[in-house]
Amino acid sequence: MKKGLILLCFVLSAGLAWSQTNTLNKQKTIIAKIAKDTLKKSKTVATDIVTIDSIPVKPLELKAFKKSAIASYYADKFNGRRTTSGKKFNNSSYTAAHKKLPFGTKVKVTNEANGRSVIVEITDRGPFVRSREIDLTKRAFMDLADNKKSGMLRVKIEIIEN
User: Fold this and answer.
1) How far apart are CA 107 and CA 121, in angstroms?
2) How far apart are alpha carbons 93 and 78 in whole angstroms?
3) CA contacts within 13 A on the Cβ side of 158
4) Are 135 and 72 in contact (CB under 8 A)?
5) What is the pTM of this model?
6) Which of 11, 57, 120, 124 could crosslink 97 through cysteines, CB 3.0-4.6 Å?
7) Is 47 helix (H, G, I), strand (E, B) or coil?
8) First-to-last CA distance in the chain?
């Protein structure tokens, strides 16, 4: 009799724990979706910190900088050279060149045609072609591009604020 009662208590407590875990997972998913939707709708987002798994998570605060900008990418010959900021250039990292933004600024660059985006850090000056706004590393550019043989993309640039 005692064994049956102990087994029944164990089964009930396991079922209750599973139900609570399932509810928590649903809540986390809903919170993450709300944060993502808020980012999409607003030009500048300054929301409260959200807690997921007892870890505080603050959504990116984005400030619109430029729409319909033209992005290009560095040639392979620049690999290993020093950038204007003094850092060594690597075409397989996520960095970029901009004419005016301060070094160390992180920007989100989004391809307007397909919605893909990357986050890059400004480490150099350029591009020195009047019609272009930003030069990306080859890796960042290829992550955005549909046509890998194209040399330019129309992008939206947003500054990530701390």
Assistant:
1) 6
2) 13
3) 22
4) yes
5) 0.65
6) 124
7) coil
8) 62
Three-class secondary structure assignment of 66-131: EEEEEEEECCHHHCCCECCCCCECCCCCCEEEECCCCCCCEEEEEECCCCCEEEEEEEECCCCCCC
Of residues 119, 107, 127, the one with CA closest to residue 144: 119
CA-nearest of 96, 89, 104 to 144 is 96
Q: What is the C-alpha separation between 99 and 113, in angstroms, rounded? A: 24
| Nearest to 105, CA basis, from 123, 92, 118, 83 | 123
Token output for 142: 């290829």
What is the residue whose two structure tokens read 């290993």? 80
Q: What count of residues does the chain have? A: 162
Tens-digit pLDDT string for the chain (162 aa): 555 545 545 554 555 444 445 555 555 555 555 555 544 544 444 445 555 555 666 677 889 999 999 999 998 999 999 999 999 999 999 999 999 999 999 999 999 999 999 999 999 999 999 999 999 999 999 999 998 888 999 999 999 987
Q: Which amino acid is at 65?
A: F
